[in-house]
Each structure stands twice: as structure tokens, then as C-alpha cells.
Amino acid sequence: MEPIQMVDLKTQYRKIKAEVDKAVIDVLESSAFINGKPVSDFASSLSLYLGIKHVIPCANGTDALQIAMMALDLQPGDEVIAPSFTYVATTEVVALLKLSPVFIDVDPKTFCIDPESIRKAITSKTKAIVPVHLYGQTAPMEEIMAIAKEHSLYVIEDNAQAIGSDYVFKNGTKKKAGTIGTIGTTSFFPSKNLGGYGDGGAIFTDDDNLAAKLKMIANHGQNKRYYHEMVGCNSRLDTIQAAVLNIKLKKLDEYIDARRTAADYYDKAFASCSKLTTPFRAAYTKHVFHQYTLLLEGIDREGLQKHLEQKGIPSMLYYPLANHKQKMFESLGLKQFDLPVTESLSPRVLSLPMHTELTGEQLNYITSSVLEFINQ
């Protein structure tokens, strides 16, 4: 059996090596390392895949969130509602722009942002909501969009973990995660479902004027070279990353199917264990399993992790400390947030290896090892 990785990018690369190597060499031969043709090709292909008019590539997923907030002209002191149970980048950019993060709770089943908590958090200063499609499952966007419309709020989707996920509305129509709100953002960090071989990100919108503004902000605030209309930043997807992503985008649905197959195996193996809660799959969306995260009931998590480590099985905690508890936000003098679900999840979640290359032998070894510890 091959060594088990949390994310096995090496084996995945070997399967597409010939295509990737040629694409990278072509970029080297062209020497168009910045804004080469693969960048525009990738933007067009991703736009078609997502069914959205505009895809603006950028340097990383954090930049994507920052640029989105800058484009919406949010002002210092404006409140931005976001879940606390997420990676810190989601709310870090809120503080960076001197906006006021309002941390709210998540649904106890999906771990995604809770609409009722959104309603309770809205004030006269609220300007935007940032739903995070956590672990690969889309947040309840239909309800979130209704709340946003009622209160005239922007919605910025953090889709770093759920690209390719379908959302089904009550009338049966479907849209891809990241294409429902005012602006969608994503990351192409190597471990993502659609990951490059370095940093990368993108921003999505159907609004022509907003797209033009997003492009300007990502390019030093200029539309014409050396003529800067607004304060922007320098955030580009480099050509080599775009060349790699062009290849991997064609295989994204295949990759998603492989992740779902692995998740099905985990689900079945743990179905009869009362001490493990397997990931909930909401009926309104297609879970694409960026992570496979268990909720532990009365289990020594540290002991389980050590047991797995001794058997050569990696595991991760996403996330051990919620955003509203992070030291970086202490200086903001924010009010205390009562988030019982979030605070109950942080000490009980454990993510197992999840990627496109997991074999039946590996999955059997992982699940047997988990159950061995629980049943000892």
C-alpha cells in the first residue's frame, strides 16, 4: 500500500504529467509569464463551466475576498457578517480594510452559516454577508439571498472549498456555488478541489460594471496603463498556474466524483458507530468534499490523532480555534459573541484524508484504524 497522504498531489500529478509538463514548457518557451494567453483561456473556460459572465483571475483566494470588498465601496466601520467557524482569511480581510467583522454561528448539521443567526445580527451598519461554503458544501443561499434582498445587503460568497458544487433552488433551477451572490470568490491553493501548483484565486460576477471595477482594482486601479483611477492592488494569476489549471479544470467533475466515492466509503464504514457523526449532506446542494470531517462524541481526539499518526495516517483539525477567539481580533474591541454551536464544534471536529487518489485498500486501513481506537 502506498503511504497515505492528507492530500496526494504527487499521484494526481503523475496521471496528468504529460499534459502538465507540455503546458508548462509552452509557457517557458513563450516567456509570457504574466498575463499570457493561458490566463485568458482559463478565465473563459471557468466562466463557461460556472455559467457566469465574468471570471477575474487574481493571486490568491484572500486577495479575491479583499478585492471584492473594495469593489463594493465598503467604508471603515461598515459591518460585515461572517461565520466564525471558518479559515481566518474570510474575516481577516474585513479587519484589514477597517470594516467591522460580525461573527455569527453556523448550522449544527452543515457547519455552514446559519440564516437565523444572520437575521439576528443585522443592524443599521450592516452592509454585507459573507457565506462560506465550508468543507465542500454550499451554504443555504436561497434563504441568504432573500435576507440580503430584504435588507439591501451585498453577498460575497467565499467559495474556496466548494468549487463545482451545484445548488438547487426550490423551483428546481441549479446554479454553481460562487455564482449566486453579488460576487463570488475562490482559491486555487494546491490542496483545493481545483488547485494549481502554487497560489491563485479568482472572482466571479454577472455584473458588467462590477466586473470592470474588479479588474481595475486587481491591476493597480488602472484601466489604461499608467492612468490610475482608484486605489487598487497588484493581484495576478501567473501564466504557469493558469496553464496547469486549464488542464485540471477539464477533470474537475471527475475529481469531484472520486472525492464523493471516498466519502461514501467513509460514510458506510462509520454508519453503525454512535460516537462518530459523519458529514451531513443537505438535499439542496451537491457536496464536493473538500474535506471529510467527522464530529466526535465522547472520544479522546488527541488520543485518536496520535493513534492514527502511529499507523501512518494523517489527520487535521479544521478549525481548532474559531475566528472570534483569535488573538488578532482582540485589538478591535469587538463585543463578546455568543456562538454555542461554533464553540461546540471546534474541540470535536477531525478531518480524515480526502483527495482524488484514495484507494479502497487505503480507505479500509483508515476506517479500520479509526474504529480500532474507538472500540478498544
Structure notes:
The two termini are 25 Å apart. The chain has 2 domains: 9-249, Type I PLP-dependent aspartate aminotransferase-like (Major domain) (Aspartate Aminotransferase, domain 2); 252-375, Aspartate Aminotransferase, domain 1 (Alpha-Beta Complex). A 7-stranded mixed sheet has the order 1-9-8-5-4-2-3, sandwiched between helices. The chain has a 3-stranded antiparallel sheet with strand order 12-13-14, with no helix packed on it. It is an alpha/beta fold. It is built from 13 helices and 14 strands. The protein has helices at residues 9-15, 17-30, 37-50, 61-71, 89-96, 115-121, 141-151, 208-218, 239-249, 252-270, 301-310, 340-345, 360-375, and strands spanning 54-58, 79-83, 100-104, 126-129, 154-158, 166-168, 174-176, 183-187, 201-205, 222-224, 227-228, 276-277, 292-296, 349-352.
Order of helices and strands: HHHEHEHEHEHEEEEEHEEHHEEHHEH
Taken from the alpha-carbon principal axes, the silhouette is globular
CATH superfamily of the largest domain: Type I PLP-dependent aspartate aminotransferase-like (Major domain)
Low-confidence stretches: none
Strand order of the largest sheet: 1-9-8-5-4-2-3
Structural class: alpha/beta
CATH topology of the largest domain: Aspartate Aminotransferase, domain 2
Average pLDDT across residues?
Answer: 97
> How many DSSP E strands?
14
CATH architecture annotation name of the largest domain:
3-Layer(aba) Sandwich
CATH class of the largest domain: Alpha Beta
**What fraction of residues sit in β-strands?**
5-15%
